[in-house]
């Protein structure tokens, strides 16, 4: 109030109320007056703008016209309270805007009294607070995101003093918010990387962003941790850079994945060169003493190796089940398996090395059987069996019913594979016999040579 | 060459056919083969029982590397040659100053290297 205390207003009553009416009419705030029961009696220009409805339309209507149905009870309760003399300030509620759309509003209601102090009406000042509420919700949403994100989110001043520190920053770096607030961010930077912080701050100060910079930080427990940091400048309302926000991501997994990939590639390097050596060894053994390379046989042997590899890959390069190995090497005689070819033995997981030796032997025996042995006639049969007896393993391939057998005149690659190579690699004894009834191949070796479980009990 | 004059070689190689092929190749070049060992334990046992003049070590033996054999041979002052599918920086440090042949290699190169490393009687 501008008047001096105790001094009556200088203006006459009539012109004073005109003056007040003019203030209300021109107020930027929407001001409306109602009777005690809520019938609208005045509706200023700001009301027309805010609610999009003219005063001629509104005067005489109930104030409930601008209140959503579900709030009518509450509104009537409030009107009753004001009518009995109470004032309600900045009551946050919902009003209906021009198109019937709900609008968040702050309403201040005051009783209007006559000269005797009797409440004769109610004045309401309505402010649209939609934008403010929207901003509050946005801020709350951002705060919730920062609280719940798995990334560490930190803010700091341009001197590197921490001004906020979320839960995930605590999880990743071990320091709590209390540990870090108002402390230098340099606490989490290893001594040999302190220069990084100077660079980061200089970049931020220049208004640039550091995007996913992979580095190392120190946890509270002293352990180093691999992180990716993204740092952006924070500006005030005037656009001045006043600090930096920093997102810290734990990339331990990523680094481990990269290391695993590196190991895997080294392994691929080793294995592929080994495979080339193997191909070289086969070619060399097939052409000893000036022999011409039998290209078809050579390619068949490469196929047999490739078959082994498929089985290995299926078991993550750890082992090959013996039964699967035998069936795989005999798959071109698939229809005879179970009838003319009997395969019998307990389940044994062969090491990759043993699988290669036994797989190649099976391949050579099968090829020989198809050309000269039991599979060269319609009547021939093959019994393939294996067993483990304590620390030893035995396996046999016995043919019968095929064309009469005579021992081969010279020992070729195939016979070296089924005897010398198997014997050498499995530390075993191999017998190959050629009775007329059919070829008999027998292997005995320490179980530890062919399967894991007991480590190198071979000697 | 007399049997007694032939240099005695220990081959450490986990791949059965490559080991077998190496043994056959080297025998054809006049060397005597002490044995083909696919594991560290087998190699150490062969060396303990028979000794050797020189060894050929495949660096990667599947589940293990031949580094323990390299340490034992170095301690016994027995020369050895490493063969591997790895690149040199992927090999254990036991092989850092050892002649290394990258797989696959020709027998002639291996034989030349063996002769270079062999202690002259």
The biggest beta sheet of chain B, please? 5 strands, parallel
Number of strands of chain B: 7
Strand order of the largest sheet of chain A: 2-1-5-4-3
Q: Helix and strand succession of chain B?
A: EHEHEEEHEEH
Mean pLDDT of chain A: 89
- DSSP strand content of chain A: 25-35%
Q: Which residue ranges of chain A are poorly predicted, with pLDDT under 50 across at least 5 consecutive positions? A: 454-459
What's the helical proportion of residues of chain A? 25-40%
What features would you describe in this structure?
- The complex is a heterodimer of chains A (459) and B (121).
- Chain A is of the alpha+beta class and 459 residues long.
- Chain A is 38% helix and 26% strand.
- In chain A, strands 2-1-5-4-3 form a five-stranded antiparallel β-sheet. A five-stranded antiparallel β-sheet of chain A has the order 7-6-10-9-8, sandwiched between helices.
- The C terminus of chain A is likely disordered.
- Chain B is of the alpha/beta class.
- Chain B has a five-stranded parallel β-sheet with strand order 2-1-3-6-7, sandwiched between helices. In chain B, strands 4-5 form a two-stranded antiparallel ribbon.
- In chain B, strand 4 and strand 5 form a beta hairpin.
- The radius of gyration of chain B is 13 Å and the shape is globular.
- The two termini of chain B are 15 Å apart.
- Classes of the chains: A alpha+beta (459), B alpha/beta (121).
- The interface between A and B is medium-sized, with 36 and 32 residues.
């Amino acid at each position: 109030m501008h008047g001096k205390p105790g001094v009556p207003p200088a203006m006459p009553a009539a012109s004073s109320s005109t003056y007040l009416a003019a203030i209300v009419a021109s107020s930027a705030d929407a001001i409306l007056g109602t009777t005690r029961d809520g019938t609208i009696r005045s509706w200023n220009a700001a009301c027309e703008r805010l609610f999009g409805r003219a005063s001629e339309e509104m005067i005489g209507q109930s104030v409930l016209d601008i209140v959503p149905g579900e709030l009518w009870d509450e509104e009537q309760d409030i009107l009753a309270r004001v009518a009995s003399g109470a004032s309600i300030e900045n009551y946050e509620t919902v009003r209906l805007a021009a198109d019937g759309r709900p609008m968040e509003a702050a309403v201040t209601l005051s009783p209007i009294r006559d000269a005797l102090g009797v409440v004769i009406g109610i004045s309401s000042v309505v402010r649209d607070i939609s934008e403010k509420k929207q901003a509050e919700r946005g801020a709350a949403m951002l705060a919730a995101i920062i609280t719940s994100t798995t990334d560490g989110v930190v803010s700091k001043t341009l001197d590197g003093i921490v001004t906020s520190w979320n839960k995930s920053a605590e999880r990743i770096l071990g320091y709590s918010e209390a540990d870090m607030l108002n402390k230098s961010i340099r606490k989490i930077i290893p001594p040999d990387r302190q220069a990084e912080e100077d660079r980061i701050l200089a970049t931020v100060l220049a208004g640039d962003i550091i995007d996913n910079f992979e580095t190392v930080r120190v946890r509270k427990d002293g352990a180093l941790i691999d992180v990716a940091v993204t740092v952006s400048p924070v500006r005030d309302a005037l656009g001045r850079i006043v600090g930096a926000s920093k997102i810290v991501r734990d990339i331990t997994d990523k680094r481990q994945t990269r290391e695993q990939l590196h190991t895997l590639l080294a392994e691929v390097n080793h294995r592929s060169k080994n495979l080339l050596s193997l191909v070289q060894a086969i070619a060399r053994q097939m052409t000893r003493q000036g022999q011409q390379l039998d290209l078809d046989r050579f390619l068949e042997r490469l196929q047999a190796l490739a078959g082994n590899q498929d089985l290995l890959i299926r078991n993550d390069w750890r082992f090959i089940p013996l039964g699967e190995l035998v069936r795989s090497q005999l798959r071109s005689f698939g229809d005879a398996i179970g009838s003319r070819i009997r395969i019998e033995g307990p389940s044994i997981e062969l090491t990759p090395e043993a699988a290669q030796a036994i797989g190649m032997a099976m391949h050579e025996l099968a090829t020989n059987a198809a050309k000269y042995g039991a599979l060269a006639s319609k009547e021939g049969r093959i019994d393939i069996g294996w067993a483990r007896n304590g620390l030893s393993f035995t396996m046999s391939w016995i043919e019968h019913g095929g064309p009469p057998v005579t021992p081969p005149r010279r020992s070729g690659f195939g016979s070296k594979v089924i005897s010398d190579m198997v014997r050498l690699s499995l530390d075993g004894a191999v017998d190959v016999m050629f009775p007329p009834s059919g070829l008999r191949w027998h292997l005995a070796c320490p179980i530890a040579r062919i399967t894991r479980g007991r480590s190198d009990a071979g000697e | 060459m007399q049997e007694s004059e032939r240099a005695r070689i220990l081959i450490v190689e986990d791949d059965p056919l490559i080991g077998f092929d190496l043994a056959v190749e080297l025998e054809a070049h006049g060397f005597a083969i002490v044995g083909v060992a696919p594991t560290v334990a087998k190699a150490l046992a062969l060396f303990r029982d028979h000794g050797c003049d020189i060894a050929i070590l495949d660096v990667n033996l599947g589940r293990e590397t031949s580094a323990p054999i390299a340490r034992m041979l170095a301690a016994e002052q027995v020369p050895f040659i490493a063969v591997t599918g790895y690149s040199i920086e992927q090999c254990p440090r036991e092989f850092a100053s050892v002649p290394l042949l990258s797989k696959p290699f020709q027998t002639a190169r291996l034989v030349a290297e063996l002769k270079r490393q062999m202690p002259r009687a």
